[in-house]
């Protein structure tokens, strides 16, 4: 029996992006996910969907241990207000449930913003469209493939 596929994996089939699929049990935290994948926390990217306006979203790639710096993100996008959609709205906008959101194979090709540190990393892990499914890919390759804007839009997570 083969491993189950996802819309993200289907979307990448036949593409020229070089990546490795890492399947783990479902993690309860970013720290646990990084541990399961044998990577550093800052190599784990969360894809956060942000509402810019009615039916207008962006994906923001945020390294583990960091959080969105809202003033920087608003300034980059030239807007005065941004918000996080609830779980139902996020799924409607992307086709993925929270914790499995990824730009790959999303229902809509929303613009992608990658934190400035992403292209500097030799390997990052980004969601593969299902819980416990991650893709390991070069940071610069990921940014180029997605056509992402690379901007300093995060700050240290002070939890």
Any overview of this molecule?
This protein has 159 residues and is α/β, with parallel strands linked by helices. The chain has 5 helices and 9 strands, in the order H-E-H-E-E-E-H-H-E-E-E-H-E-E. The chain has helices spanning 7-12, 30-37, 70-77, 87-94, 139-146, and strands spanning 20-23, 45-53, 56-63, 66-68, 112-115, 124-130, 133-137, 149-151, 154-156. A hairpin with a 2-residue loop joins strand 6 and strand 7 (133-137). It is globular and about 45 Å long. The termini are far apart. The model has no long low-confidence stretch (mean pLDDT 94).
Rounded average pLDDT: 94
Q: Which residues sit in consecutive blocks of at least 5 with pLDDT less than 50?
A: none
> What is the SS-derived class?
alpha/beta
Biggest sheet: strands, sense, closure?
A: 4 strands, mixed
Number of strands: 9
Tell me the span between the first and last alpha carbons: 42 Å
Per-chain topology:
Blueprint: H1 7-12, E1 20-23, H2 30-37, E2 45-53, E3 56-63, E4 66-68, H3 70-77, H4 87-94, E5 112-115, E6 124-130, E7 133-137, H5 139-146, E8 149-151, E9 154-156
Parallel strand pairs: 3-5, 5-8
Antiparallel strand pairs: 1-7, 2-3, 4-9, 6-7
Characterize this entry briefly:
The chain has 159 residues and is α/β, with parallel strands linked by helices. It has five helices and nine strands, in the order αβαβββααβββαββ.
Q: What distinguishing features does this structure have?
A:
single chain, 159 residues, alpha/beta, four-stranded mixed sheet, three-stranded antiparallel sheet, globular
